């Protein structure tokens, strides 16, 4: 296949590029050339998808059998790309998010769940952030003349991860000592390796499939405790987890999801955080590697990369609890637990 990948230089986009090259496809990447070198074995076209002239030049470089868009976040921007590439590719595969579904995270979701309202030409300031991906999906559906395939991933992990949730846990375990762990070790989680999304997406394109697929790990098979145990095991620093109840952590001013990654409050507002159904994708061939493999591979890559230049961030929020704050909360929990 002749494939165009918009982005392709970081994390999920790079996973798609690597897998497509490994399969022997002809791969063109379109990006600004600012996020890292393009992978060997690809053709590079550097430009800005916000620039009409760059999009016009990109369209002229086609046609392609398929477009893979892993870097669309704003409806108007995605709409411009969809218009420019309409008629220049057979299929447009757009990587979206769980965030498009109105019930999530309060309730379980699948492909039939209602999407958040957001028009295909919405500006960033027009709608809440979580709805923007829904507008991006509608932009592809409305403006691209060809087959449309949409993937809705949950939390994505693996080597080269951004924003760095799993990376933070691995680095924290590598420092050793007592590690503050949130809530219950038995809380189930759903994570998916970026490489598994790439493999599944390319499988769909190769078979000519279209439609919408919710892609995440299986429900009720992996726990937060198992994830943290695996992080401690592969780092080998002798770290021990100290589990504190979520109500206590909230009292101490700790925030879920960001300060202690993968911690979803067991409250109605987040009751569906780990209850998405990937059944349709599994039936279509989605295969998820063991979480232990993802953790081990990510740690190996992390050791090769070395320390990060800056804290991991989700938007403006720093991922991971401050070490001094963690020590204070651990002391407070020991005092409370002892009596």
Polypeptide structure, described:
- It holds the Pfam family Epimerase.
- This is NAD-dependent epimerase/dehydratase domain-containing protein.
- With 339 residues, the chain is an alpha/beta fold.
- The protein has two domains: 2-153, 3-Layer(aba) Sandwich (Rossmann fold); 165-190 and 219-274 and 291-338, UDP-galactose 4-epimerase, domain 1, CATH 3.90.25.
- 36% of the residues lie in helices and 20% in strands.
- The chain has helices at 11-22, 52-60, 75-85, 132-143, 165-174, 194-207, 224-235, 246-251, 279-283, 291-305, 323-338, and strands spanning 2-6, 26-31, 43-46, 64-69, 89-95, 147-153, 155-157, 178-182, 188-189, 191-193, 211-215, 222-223, 240-244, 256-257, 260-261, 313-314, 317-318.
- The strands form six sheets. The protein has a seven-stranded parallel sheet with strand order 3-2-1-4-5-6-11, sandwiched between helices.
- Helix 1 (11-22) crosses helix 6 (194-207), helix 2 (52-60) runs parallel beside helix 3 and helix 3 runs parallel beside helix 4.
- It is globular and about 70 Å long.
The CATH superfamily of the largest domain is identified as NAD(P)-binding Rossmann-like Domain
Low-confidence stretches: none
| Helical content class | 25-40%
Biggest beta sheet summary: 7 strands, parallel
* Tally of discrete structural domains: 2
Overall number of strands: 17
Could you state the oligomeric state of the chains shown?
single chain
CATH architectural grouping of the largest domain: 3-Layer(aba) Sandwich
Summed up, the helix count is: 11
Through-space gap between termini: 66 Å
GO molecular function: aldehyde dehydrogenase (NAD+) activity
Pfam families: Epimerase (PF01370)
Domain NAD-dependent epimerase/dehydratase: 3-210
Organism: Streptomyces hundungensis
């Amino acid at each position: 296949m002749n494939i165009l990948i918009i982005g392709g230089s970081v994390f999920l986009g790079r996973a798609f590029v690597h897998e497509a090259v490994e399969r022997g496809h002809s791969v063109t990447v379109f990006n600004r050339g600012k996020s890292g070198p393009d992978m060997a074995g690809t053709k590079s076209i550097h430009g800005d998808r916000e620039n009409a002239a760059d999009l016009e030049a990109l369209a002229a470089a086609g046609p392609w059998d398929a477009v893979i868009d892993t870097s669309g976040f704003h409806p108007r921007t995605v709409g411009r790309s969809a218009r420019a590439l309409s008629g220049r590719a057979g299929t447009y595969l757009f990587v979206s998010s769980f965030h498009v579904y109105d019930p999530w995270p309060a309730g379980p979701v699948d492909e039939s769940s209602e999407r958040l309202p957001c028009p295909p030409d919405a500006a960033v300031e027009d709608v809440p952030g979580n709805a923007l991906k829904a507008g991006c999906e509608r932009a592809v559906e409305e403006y691209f003349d060809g087959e449309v395939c949409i993937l809705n991933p949950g939390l994505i992990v693996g080597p080269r991860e951004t924003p760095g949730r799993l990376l933070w846990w691995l680095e924290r375990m590598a420092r050793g000592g007592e590690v503050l762990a949130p809530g219950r070790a038995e809380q189930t989680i759903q994570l998916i390796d970026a490489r598994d999304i790439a493999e599944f997406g390319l499988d769909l394109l190769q078979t000519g499939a279209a439609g919408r697929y919710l892609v995440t790990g299986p429900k009720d098979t992996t726990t937060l405790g198992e994830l943290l145990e695996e992080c401690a095991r592969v780092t080998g620093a002798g770290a021990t987890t100290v589990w504190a109840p979520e109500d206590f952590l909230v009292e101490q001013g700790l925030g879920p999801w960001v300060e202690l990654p993968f911690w979803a409050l067991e409250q109605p507002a987040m009751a569906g955080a780990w209850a998405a159904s990937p059944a349709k994708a599994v039936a279509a061939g989605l295969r998820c590697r063991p979480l232990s493999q993802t953790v081990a591979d990510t740690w190996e890559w992390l050791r090769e990369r070395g320390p990060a230049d800056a804290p991991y961030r989700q938007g403006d929020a720093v991922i991971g609890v401050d070490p001094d704050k963690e020590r204070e909360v651990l002391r407070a929990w020991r005092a409370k637990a002892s009596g």
